[in-house]
Structures are given as C-alpha cells and as structure tokens.
Amino acid sequence: MDFKRNSVIALHLAGKSQPSIVRELKLLKVNKVFVYRTITRYNDTGSIAKRHGGGHQKTATSREMVQKVKKRLERNPRRSANQMAKELKISDRSIRRILKNDLKVKPYKIQKAHDLTSKQRQVRLERAKELLRLAESGQLPNIVFSDKNIFTIEQQFVNSQNDRVNLTDRSCENPPQIMVWAAVTADGRSPIIFIEPGVKVNAQYYRESILKVALKPWADKHFGDRPWTFQQDSAPSHKARLNQEWLENNVPNFITSTQ
User: Fold this and answer.
1) 192: containing domain
2) pLDDT of residue 202
3) Are 138 and 90 in the same domain?
4) Is 57 part of a structural domain of the chain?
5) How many C-beta atoms surround the C-beta of residue 159 within 10 A?
6) What pLDDT sits at residue 76?
7) Stretch 14-37: mean pLDDT
8) 78 and 40 assigned to the same domain
9) N or C: which end of the chain has fewer CB within 10 A?
C-alpha cells in the first residue's frame, strides 16, 4: 500500500494531474478516490502515513454510553431496551448492540411459577419422604395415577411473542376444547373418558361419572385379585369428603388428600 502511495506522490510532485496519475498507475489498480485522498493527506500533513484517530468516532455506543446503560440495568434489570433508548436519546438498535456486544446480556422471559412458602415446602418435603418410605416398604402396591386435561381442538391465534401469525384480524378467540380423563399404571391404562362440553367436574360428577363408572370397573378387571393403590392430585373435587369416603370403602388402597 505504501508503494502505491509513494508512486502517487512521486507523479504528483512531477506535475502530473490526478487523471493522468490514475492512467499511469493502472497496473497498480489505483482509482481516482485513492489518488485524491493520498494527495490530500500529503498536502495536509507532508506525509503519506495514516493519521491516527481518523475515521468515524463512536457516539451512541461509546464507553460513557455503555456505562450509563449498565447502571440503569443494575438499578432495574427489567428496564426495556426501548425505554432506555428514549431516556438516553439514542436508537434502539444502538441499545441492543450495547446489551449484546458490550454488556453480554440477553433478554429472558419471566417464567411464572407457584410461589411456595417455607412452611409449604417443608410440608411437601415431609409428605414426599413419607410416600417414598411407604412405596419402598411395599405398602403402596401397583400405584394408579389419574388426571384430566383440556385439549384445544383448533389452534388459538393470539399473536403472542413467540407464536406469531400474519392475519387481517384475530380469529378463533374461543376455540373448541375438550376435556378428557384417564388413569395409568405400570402395566396398563384405563379407557379414555371424554367429559361432555360445558360440564363442570364437581365432587358429584367426579364420583358418579368417573370414579364409579370409569376407574372402579377398569381397575377391578385389570388387577383382579392383586392389590392396587389409587393416587390423584389435590383438586377440590378429589378432596371432597364424600369422595374420600367413597374411595375408602371401594378401593383396596388410596393416597388420601392429607398424605
């Protein structure tokens, strides 16, 4: 590169015009912009050396701006990039460049979870240990797990952050849904029970239409003379007093709502 610049300056000092220099140095592949800048630098500085500190200076992503963004995040890590861009009067692209390249941070979605108190954690831990002890001692043979779930028949278009669809308007705001119940054990499963649309699974419906009609007949046929243990979650209809009494009188063994 210095050879090219020296050649340009030598011809310039010899009185050649810039177009003439471009033609004579065609084999060196110099263009008129290169010739102009080289001559201008020589006339301004008396040298062909590159001036230090030249070029575009950082403004929006300067060290001072990075520190301002860092301090704002330390005070409130939930502060959005758009909000900081408005406060600092720079573009949101510059803010995101600072976050990614300078501060090495990523935006993570807040995941909601059931917040347990210390007492609740301790109770759950003690119950889990007791259930493990009973299972290891053989007091909970052939456990049958059961649960119900709701399935959406059609996709619901809600234009959420990570599931987008381009539409002229929203559709399927209340898509058809269906609720099913089933029980499963180590060596088999019950038939799937479809719950009628619009039916609320209260204590009576759960007892009459699921425990009596679905669980008991299937379990009696599947296990025969073998003992089995029924386990369910703590839904209100499951914990109802009449349902707990029915289970106590009609199944060989079950995990109560207090266990």
Assistant:
1) 118-254
2) 92
3) no
4) no
5) 10
6) 85
7) 89
8) no
9) N
